[in-house]
Design brief:
With 217 residues, the protein is mainly alpha-helical. The chain is built from eleven helices and two strands. The protein has a two-stranded antiparallel sheet.
Length: 217
């Protein structure tokens, strides 16, 4: 009802309701990620990748529709890309809990297959640096931060968010030493702005959210 007060059903805002339905559908599909010992069911990596991409993309697309009512194709693609990346980050942060619950993500499936988390973690960092993560949008209605280039404040915020995501990947990895090869873990720690021992104590995400809550609420 509250959503309908902002965006009327049908017509130009139908995307709002389609995106919410897509979230529900993707959440239903996520049950496929639960391995079951009673009937020896285990999802394949291909299934896990598809469900993770759909679930992450759907969540952020729905958020975009709820904020703006309508989205361009470019923003849809960007939010889908970013949503998958954030889903992977969340999965990396939840590795231990997911292992206990037999919940298969790209990371826990890798471990179930007897492999360290080196490759999927490296791919996640690369994912954060790929071109779509730094997309610019012609309809950004924001203050122009750089008059020479026309880059908006919104674009700078998006770039900063991706850089922050890499820090969160490093923070999550710092707590999962036993799941990485020694060489890869050492290389990751050398890339961190803080030593891994310090990064574990800082709890970056919790600290940032605490600041946000204090400022906004």
């Amino acid at each position: 009802k509250f959503i309908e007060n902002d965006w009327k059903r049908g017509g130009e805002y139908e995307g709002v309701y389609m995106s919410l339905a897509t979230i529900h559908e993707s959440q239903m599909k996520s049950t496929l990620q639960h391995a079951r010992t009673e009937d020896n069911y285990a999802p394949t990596m291909a299934q896990i990748e598809q469900v993770s991409a759909e679930k992450g993309g759907a969540s952020l697309i729905a958020a975009g529709f709820l904020i703006e009512g309508r989205l361009t194709h470019a923003k849809l693609a960007y939010l889908e890309y970013l949503g998958f990346g954030l889903q992977l980050l969340d999965d990396l942060q939840d590795v231990r809990e997911d292992m206990k619950n037999n919940h298969r993500t790209i990371f826990t499936q890798t471990l179930a297959e007897g492999q360290p988390l080196d490759a999927p973690t490296a791919r996640l960092i690369q994912y954060c640096y790929c071109a779509p993560a730094y997309a610019k949008f012609s309809d950004d209605q924001r203050t122009v931060s750089d008059r020479k280039t026309g880059v908006t404040l919104a674009h700078y915020v998006r770039v900063s968010m991706m850089m922050f995501s890499v820090v969160l990947v490093l923070e999550a990895a710092s707590r999962l030493k036993e799941y990485y090869s020694k060489d890869f873990y050492r290389e990751l720690s050398s890339l961190s702005p803080l030593t891994f021992s310090d990064l574990k104590k800082v709890r970056v995400e919790e600290t940032i959210w605490s600041i946000v809550r204090n400022q906004w609420f």
